[in-house]
Amino acid sequence: MTTTDAGFQRARRPEQKRQRQDDILAAARDLAVRDGVRNVTLTDIADRIGIHKSALLRYFETREQILLELTARSWREWARWLDDELDGAAPGDPGLVADVVARSFTGRPLLCDLIAHTPLNLERHVSVAAVRRYKLTSLGAIADAVEVIGRALPELTPGECREFISAMASLAGAMWQIANPPPALADLYAADPELAHACVDLLPRLRRTAEIMLAGLVPSRPPG
Amino acid sequence: MTTTDAGFQRARRPEQKRQRQDDILAAARDLAVRDGVRNVTLTDIADRIGIHKSALLRYFETREQILLELTARSWREWARWLDDELDGAAPGDPGLVADVVARSFTGRPLLCDLIAHTPLNLERHVSVAAVRRYKLTSLGAIADAVEVIGRALPELTPGECREFISAMASLAGAMWQIANPPPALADLYAADPELAHACVDLLPRLRRTAEIMLAGLVPSRPPG
Fold first, then answer.
1. Cα–Cα nearest to A103, from A120, A125, A122, A81
2. Residues of chain B contacting residue A211, judged by C-beta atoms under 8 Å apart
3. In whole angstroms, what is the distance from residue B147 CA to residue B39 CA?
4. Is B159 on the interface with A (CB under 8 A)?
């Protein structure tokens, strides 16, 4: 069997196959960072690595599976970064945790962009098996973060840490989209005083919400 | 000038035009509630009221402008409902406010579905003038809610009420998408104990987050 894509022959051995997958994911990541997740197409990914679109589909089911795999990798990196940042921090400092959690998202614009697309688009155009693999990874990353935050703030229960980090992840995804409008709208919001509240400054906003939640978890704890 | 759409002749007087617009919006609303916002097409809207797609475009710029106008109307209804529910409530009851705010969203699945689509899709396929009109309406609804919550919880500043209600709106939009997966995924999450945390029960989740935020706003207030 031959391929017309010189330099990108079909991978036969497992390590070759992994290398191909990594190349595809690297190309998708570059395009998503540059153009936004919404604008990444299979054709653009294929063009970037110099192969035909149909060759991509030997390695991934759909465009959405490529992006879902990127999301899974981003969640793992995010959890490792949180662990590194809070490792050795003196326990009981909610201001530090709020700042680190807010920066864990604002430092990862691609993850933020992907979060909103995941239930809306990515999980809807892949097989159930692919969603299951993805969910196990993302839930695993959240579970790691729950442990890290529990070490940093020992007065919180694991359920409270999960409540906090799940809300922060959803908010980061939703607010990133609001904070990153297309250029014509960014200009409109900046120019029109009546639309001042349409502008969102993501880092201070997420940090403040994190501070509010961390201050409220214990006092609002249900009795019993 | 004639039209081939019997029974749906071009509206010439302003009140006829408004009636046409209302018919289009009602059809779009029915379809969005039944099939989800993602699945509403211009063709389906046109079919439902028995006209040709091109006739729709005399009244709205795009599919997205129809949905954006639905979103604006939903925000206005939401703000009025909040006002009605909290009107005459004894001030200083954060549990009541948390419950009412959570139900203001869970009782409006269409608004929740639209919230996530707004920055991601709807605001990107209409004119800047249409986005401006929409933003003035949605920001107006949020401003009304800030006032209502400020009356119910007089210890909060307007900025704190805005922080709270903006976060709740973003969360409601994001979590609604997670809580409403396609049927195949809902079955998967329900059947697989490892995926238990993928299931979100929207009302208790939003209510709890509202309680946490309302308990945390004052204690986390920045000094000065």
1. A81
2. 216, 220
3. 35
4. no
Residues A94-127 pLDDT 10s? 999 999 999 999 999 999 999 999 999 999 999 9
Among A192, A194, A212, whose Cβ lies nearest the Cβ of B163?
A: A212
C-alpha angle with apex A165: A162 to A168, nearest 5 degrees? 145
Count A/B contacts: CB-CB distance under 8 Å. Answer: 132
Measured in angstroms, the CA of A8 and the nearest CA of chain B are apart by: 35
CB pair distance less than 8 Å for A120 and B219: no
Nearest to A194 among B131, B136, B185 (CB): B136
* Distances in whole angstroms, Cα of residue A33 to Cα of each of A27, B18, B119, B160: 10, 43, 18, 33
Q: Which of A185, A212, A217 should we substitute to test contact with B (largest number of B Cβ atoms within 10 Å)?
A: A212
Sign of the four-CA dihedral A169, A170, A175, A176: positive
- Phi-psi region at B7: left, alpha or beta (left = phi > 0; alpha = psi -120 to 50): left
- b/e map of A131-160 (b: 16 or more CB within 10 Å)? bbbbbebbbebbbbbbebbbebbeebeeeb
Cβ-contact B116, A171 below 8 angstroms = no
- pTM for the full predicted model: 0.93
> What long-range pairs does B189-198 form, CB within 8 A, spacing at least 24?
B189/A135, B192/A132, B194/A136, B194/A139, B195/A132, B195/A135, B195/A136, B195/A139, B197/A139, B197/A142, B197/A162, B198/A135, B198/A139
**What is the tens place of the pLDDT at every residue in A43-102?**
999 999 999 999 999 999 999 999 999 999 999 999 999 999 999 899 999 999 999 999
Give the nearest chain B residue to A116 (CA atoms). Answer: B174
ipTM: 0.92
Task: Mark yes or no for CB contact A128/B162 under 8 Å.
Answer: no
CA angle centred on A178, ends B221 and B85, rounded to 5°: 60
